[in-house]
Structure formats: C-alpha cells, structure tokens
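Ticket #4471: structure output looks truncated?

Reporter: J.K.
Steps to reproduce: submitted the chain below (187 residues) through the standard prediction queue, then opened the result file.
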Amino acid sequence: MNAFFDSLAGISGADEPWRPISRPAVAAWLVFYAAFLVYAFRAHGGFLFIDSANLVVHEGGHLLFGWFGPTIGLWGGTLLQWLVPLLLAAYFFHQRQPAAFVFCAFFFFENWLYTATYMADARALMLPLVTTGDPEFARHDWNTIFTSLGVLDYETTIAAIVRGLGWCGMLACVGWLAAKGRAKGQT
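Returned output as attached by the reporter:
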C-alpha cells in the first residue's frame, strides 16, 4: 500500500520541493488576499467582481456537460465553475508553484460563496437568471436540483454550510501562504 501512495506522490509532484517565493512577494499576495477578503465580507453575499468570470465559466459548463444529458447539464454549470480553478490548482501544485497554487485554490473556494448565494435563492427566485438558451425556458439550477433531491426547504441551511466552507477554504489558503512565507524567513 505504501508503494501505491509513494507512486501517487511521485506523479503529483508532492515529493518535490516548492519553488521559492520571496518574502516581499508573499507579503504582497497576503495584502491582496486580505483586501479581497474584506471586500467579500463587506459584500454580505452579494455579487463580487470576480463573479462575472465565474458566471461565464458556469454557463459554459451547462453547454459542455449538456452534451451528456439534461441532469449532468444542469449540474454542469457548478461543476465546471468549481473544476476550472480546482484543476488549475492541481496543475500548479504539481509544478510546485506556491503563489499560483494558492491563487487558484483561493478562487476555487471563492466560487463557493457565489454558489451559496445562488443556492440560498432557490425558493425566493429573486436573482436574475442568465442563460445561453431561450430565456423563456430558463430555470433556476438550484431550485431544480434541490427540488429533485427533496431538500428545497433546507436551501438556506445548505447555502450557509457551503458559504462557511468557502470562507474556511479561503482563509486556509491565506494561512498556508503566510506559513510558507514565515517558514522561508526562518531557514
């Protein structure tokens, strides 16, 4: 079993050292993340500037995954929206580039805030819907998903959990980068 995990470490690049990142670069990134976290916190679940890019990827996910059927097409918006930064984070993890890895991981978790806002609207249906198809047939993804799963009455609870996990993930990314910068200063 150890051989299996050792081979995974070799494939992932986890047995390689991280590329160096200067303390001033770490400090600049930490200032950026702190500013973004304050901005996101003050928005109280509102639309953030980065969510325009997230929306394009989300809608593209419906088109891409829609080729595989209506159910996966419905889920495809959120799947692609989460997969793009996650796969980019995995790539930069493999390349051992800490700043790029944290950036992509941070925005993977930021997507959870956007998704949570959309989830919380599943019953209220107050958010404007964007679609790549006929607006007459537009439907709210999370209303449809939660209804099919029988959890529509819990949409705000589910959204709060997703939002909390998103915040925890973003803070963990920033904390990891800060620890990385601190460890560099001690060596």
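Triage note (M.O.): checked the attachment and the full token line is present. Residues 161 and 177 are 24 Å apart (CA to CA).
Status: closed, working as intended.
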